Amino acid sequence: IKESDLICIASIGKPKGLNGEFFINSFCFPQENIQKYNIFYMENNVASYFQMDYIKQQNSKFVAKFKGINNKDEINVMTGIKRGRTILLLRVGKISSLKPPLQIGSLGTLL
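Now predict its structure.
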């Protein structure tokens, strides 16, 4: 996938709680539109592409959880390395070229 096929829609914030959740900063308009997506790419192809279990709104913030990350230690590794990194979405029309998403194993390693 070429960089020109991607658009920036969010950035990773700090971890939240004990079950692998983290804050996500939405650049969508309106911001709630971030909840419509679940397959993302990471800036500089750090994690190629990945899936979210969910993105939910809590007050004025958004909380997300990567599929396969289930505890505080694992998300600390992921967000500590990637905090502030841009989360990208494949542009419409390019979606048919997607492969099945990568699974994230323990301590943020890709399976």
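Confidence is low (pLDDT under 50) at residues 93-111.
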